[in-house]
# Entry
Amino acid sequence: MAQTIKTATDNKPTIAVLDGFANAFNAHDVNRILSFMTDDCVFQASAGPDVDGEKFTGKEAVRKAFEDVFKTYPDAKWTNARHFISGERAVSEWTFTGTKEDGSKVEVTGCDLFTFRDGKIAIKNSYRKNRPAISKT
# Structure
């Protein structure tokens, strides 16, 4: 039986992985999103009580954080994605749009800084512009 040999490039991020991750977000498919992440993954949200935003550690905590985003913005979309890779790190730039239950809309640019381990996302550190929501008028 032939043995598969893992090469160094197997552990590096690729544009295909970053596109797949972004597509999973736009599909609101939390299981698929988490399939791109390590079991001990960390998500650092763009806002929160700490200097680096709110931090979620482990798949279950990250799952809940992402599910909460989709509840808050049922029509959430990340468009205009552009990705950059350097070694085990990657950056995705995007435009986020979403509408809250009260009808207020958000449209902001932002980026995610990723750290990869064993070919998966270990850390997703999110940043976005701070812009007031546009009321539904």
